Amino acid sequence: MERTNPADGRVLRAEGLCKSYGKQQVLLDLNLTIEPGCIYGLIGRNGAGKTTLLSILTGQNTMDAGKVTYGGEPVWENPRALSELCFARELNATAETAQISVKEYLYAGQLFCPHWDKAMADSLIEKFGIDRKKRIAKLSKGQMSMVTITAALASKAPITILDEPAAGLDVIMREKFYRMLLEEYAATGRTFLVSTHIIEEASGVFERVIVLDEGHIIADRPTEELIDEFRYVSGEKTALDAALAGHGVQPLQVQELGAHKMAAVRGDARLFAALADDPALTVAGMNLQNVFVALCGHGDEEG
Ligand SMILES: Nc1ncnc2c1ncn2[C@@H]1O[C@H](COP(=O)(O)OP(=O)(O)OP(=O)(O)O)[C@@H](O)[C@H]1O
């Protein structure tokens, strides 16, 4: 299939990014590289700074320190760089754009996005069954998500960023959305950066996952490689504690049920093989959601 709109090797890069709102520091000396031709997932807890990061990457928000470049050029107030980047924000009834109709919203997309694919926008809106004369404010939450997704896909921007695109969608529409994303990616090689809280569902779509926690990126890895660094190890409490201490392992997260204990452990194949060799222990794989909870669930332990 023809790849119509690749980023031609141009990289979106954030270096030393710092951002505060008043006294609240949200991003702390953050570095990130978005390579062309990849689907990235951005995950982080509520308030971790995902939207702030995405808006700074696309020149829609200021930073206090650091720089963001695309193809080596600063992004801020740079029409050439910005024309290659699409940031599809979540719509809501109070957004500035909420009083215009779907048709007007998509027309604005056409004016702002030089690679806009009108036929694709029309076909998606039709497929989603959305009345284009309706004002955005009068759409359901799911329909607002569909309009955002339509604009993101039809923008044909080499780097397309979607902030919580699946939030308002039911499970069937979410599956459909990820299928459309994969099809578009296969056809064009465009880069997508997608933030989501519905982690497990999206994990198969993300080639690479970026975890944002307390202003820092704590993981930026191919999804499978990241998942493979973690295991649940369980067994009788004293046997588990002794084994972990023997290997010098500090568990990330523990759950106890009576004399039984389960620990989320980060390590390598050698450690996991050694733990699996212990007849008193059981070693099991984790999924991306489990890994996220182990990495970012600090401070929320029960008891
Ligand atoms: N314009 C603003 N003025 C003041 N504080 C802000 C502003 N925008 C965001 N914040 C604060 O910055 C922090 C990060 O917000 P942000 O929206 O970037 O997080 P997020 O990871 O996208 O969160 P969520 O997953 O809940 O949408 C939050 O504590 C938020 O209250």
TrEMBL record:
InterPro entries: AAA+_ATPase, ABC_transporter-like_ATP-bd, ABC_Transporter_VariousFunc, P-loop_NTPase
PANTHER family assigned: ABC TRANSPORTER ATP-BINDING PROTEIN ALBC-RELATED
Highest taxon, organism lineage: Bacteria
Domain ABC transporter: 12-239
Keyword Transcription annotated: no
Source organism (scientific name): Gemmiger gallinarum
SUPFAM superfamilies cross-referenced by the UniProt entry: P-loop containing nucleoside triphosphate hydrolases
The UniProt record lists the keyword ATP-binding: yes
Pfam families: ABC_tran
Example of a GO MF term: ATP binding
Record keywords, A-Z: ATP-binding, Nucleotide-binding, Transport
Name of this chain's protein: ABC transporter ATP-binding protein
Lineage: Bacteria, Bacillati, Bacillota, Clostridia, Eubacteriales
